[in-house]
Write a structure and sequence with these properties.
Order of helices and strands of chain A: HHHH
Oligomer: heterodimer
Number of helices of chain B: 11
CATH superfamily of the largest domain in chain B: Naphthalene 1,2-dioxygenase Alpha Subunit, Chain A, domain 1
Number of strands of chain A: 0
Number of strands of chain B: 18
Structural class of chain A: mainly alpha
Shape of chain A: flat
Shape of chain B: globular
Strand content of chain A: under 5%
Chain lengths: 77, 384
């Protein structure tokens, strides 16, 4: 079970340490958590961050996954 | 705002026998320098860098040229593109340091992301949190602002105002003059073949000094041994370039007979020929059968210029460790020559503070390349 508090802590740590590669999967997990709770706005907020950071660090897999979700919810194209 | 003396500009445009050089204001006046950015640089094709600085896909090199923030990017298709280095959202500088980007150009402010071809890829939260679309944000209209560019012999030329004729038209004579070199692959010699000189002079004095051979026996006496004044000829193309050629190029960098290999399929002219051209406004070229160099003149102010020198060879074999000593000797030889010129251009710069100086008198025999450059400057300021 993904715990939001742990995710937030890990995301903050990754930002503090400028660990760019750690960010896309963490934001993806956060997006999925909110998606599972039915909060699509919050999910898309985190999918957006997962997408942007994945583009930035060349994580093609996360970029495609996040972009696909955003497109399916009509939030990107 | 400085008002240029139109009579003095008209004097420059007279035949060389009766002409004077450009008046002092062209060298000393910050207002004229600002005007030159528009008239001589933005409206023509100016050199702003070298493609070798972005060898791989995703390489991005931010360059400030004439105060303009620019970004050179090697795109996915291998093409080199030049953009204004600002986000279309809030005008934030996109890339601060030379880097290799992974798959996007991301603005560090609100994370608008651009593809390497400049197209806008995504606009995070632009329609509210988690909503990356908005009907007013038309991505197809909001790509990075691309600057017209053209690469000639690894030298990146840009036309900032976008109104100049195509480079192939603008530089048609140069492309013809050096057609034997223009399509040859060039291989940069690496760190030992790259250096810069910071000079306290107006950029035009570097152009003028480079394009004439009159000074060679006085300033570069070391050249007299194999390249005498009478071995040189003028190269003149109105409105485009001027320079000099030699017919006795015969480098001897190594006592054991080692030498750089030549470019393939050159005509006999280049067996002992070499040419040195000031291509207006701001790049100085030198071609030889075994190497090529370019000097970008990067004006910092009306009285200060950075000269950036890059030397290229004919094959990857010339760029390996076993040729490093020869490359260093070659770079050192050129650097010594260019350093010998510094006191001259800096002396002429200080001389331009002599208020009664009239721009100078040309030798109709020795100074036609210099006059041709002055004529180009004056004609552009006269709207001709």
């Amino acid at each position: 079970m993904i715990d939001e508090q742990h995710l937030q802590r890990d995301m903050l740590r990754a930002h503090e340490q400028h660990d760019l590669k750690a960010l896309p999967p963490l934001y993806l997990d956060a997006a999925r958590l909110h998606e599972s709770q039915g909060d699509i706005d919050a999910a898309c907020f985190f999918y957006t961050h997962a997408y942007v950071y994945a583009l930035d660090c060349g994580d093609r897999q996360v970029a495609e996954t996040a972009h696909s979700k955003l497109s399916s919810y009509g939030r990107d194209r | 705002m400085t008002v240029l003396d139109q009579d003095m500009i008209a004097n420059v445009l007279r035949p060389i026998e009766a002409a004077n050089g450009l008046p002092n204001a062209f060298y000393t006046d910050p207002d004229v320098h600002e005007a030159e950015k528009r008239v001589l640089f933005a409206a023509t094709w100016a050199c702003m860098g070298f493609a070798k600085d972005v060898p791989n896909k995703g390489d991005a090199n931010p360059v400030t040229f004439l105060g303009q923030p620019l970004l050179v990017v090697r795109a996915d298709d291998g093409e080199v593109r030049v953009f204004q280095n600002v986000c279309r959202h809030r005008g934030m500088i996109l890339v601060e340091e030379k880097t290799t980007l992974r798959s996007t150009i991301r603005c560090p402010y609100h994370s608008w992301c651009y593809n390497f071809d400049g197209s806008l890829r995504t606009t995070p939260h632009v329609g509210g949190p988690g909503k990356n679309l908005h009907e007013c944000i038309k991505r197809e209209e909001l790509g990075l602002i691309e600057v017209r560019s053209y690469i000639f012999m690894d030298t990146i030329f840009i036309n900032l105002d976008g109104k100049a004729p195509a480079f192939e038209v603008h530089a048609a004579s140069l492309l013809e003059q050096w057609k034997e070199f223009a399509d040859k692959p060039l291989y940069h010699g690496g760190p030992d073949s790259s250096f810069s000189l910071e000079v306290n002079c107006n950029w035009k004095l570097a152009v003028e000094n480079y394009c004439e051979s009159y000074h060679l026996p006085w300033i570069h006496p070391g050249l007299n041994s194999y390249s005498r004044l009478e071995d040189h000829y003028h190269i003149m193309q109105q409105g485009e370039y001027s320079g000099q050629g030699t017919v006795v190029y015969n480098p001897k960098l190594d006592d054991t007979g080692r030498a750089f290999s030549n470019f393939d399929d050159l005509s006999a002219k280049w067996d002992t020929g070499a040419e040195y051209i000031s291509f207006y406004p701001n790049v100085l070229f030198g071609v030889h059968r075994d190497h090529f160099y370019a000097i970008m003149l990067d004006p910092q102010s009306n009285g200060r210029t950075i000269e950036r020198i890059e030397i290229y060879y004919t094959s990857p074999d010339m760029c390996g460790d076993d040729m490093a000593d020869l490359r260093r000797k070659n770079a050192s030889m050129w650097k010594d020559i260019f350093v010998e010129d510094i006191f001259v251009v800096e002396g002429m710069q200080r001389g331009r503070s002599a208020s009664l100086y009239d721009g100078g008198k040309f030798s109709p025999v020795m100074d036609p390349p210099t006059h041709l450059f002055h004529e180009w400057v004056a004609a552009r300021f006269a709207g001709k």
